[in-house]
Fold this sequence. Notes:
Number of strands: 5
Structural class: alpha+beta
Helix content: 25-40%
Amino acid sequence: MKYSQIQFSQSHAxxxxxxxxxxxxxxxxxxxxxxxxxxxxxxxxxxxVISISDGESLIGFARATSDGIYRAxxxxxxxxxxxxxxxxxxxLVETVLTHPRMQVERVYLMTTxxxxxxxxxxxxxxxxxxxxxxxxxxxxxxxxxxxHLQESLEA
Length: 155
């Protein structure tokens, strides 16, 4: 591999959404079949967004969201399978972490099978603070008045 061809970018404009979709379909079981439109929205609402290219080919990507002072979350870290195991994933996450928007009290991320990878970078398993709302239909029904407060408290 010629490392002189590999470039890191923080520019949203450098991301080819079709290549991004292809990369995730290939290398990320959790993000298969995301639409180009959805990727566009996610990227527009994220900062930093870091991409890695080898020449014209997108080979890595990560994005984050942050309030700029207290909390940030890293999302969608992926390296093309042909480039894994060469230190690019660590460099990618470190690039995200050094961005000014990421200088916060705590940085969170969610991972299914890569805890050991993230522990090498300094992340710690934290099973006490993570909750998830998988489907917002109940919240939407509450917000639209279809579920009343008393009904929600009884549930």
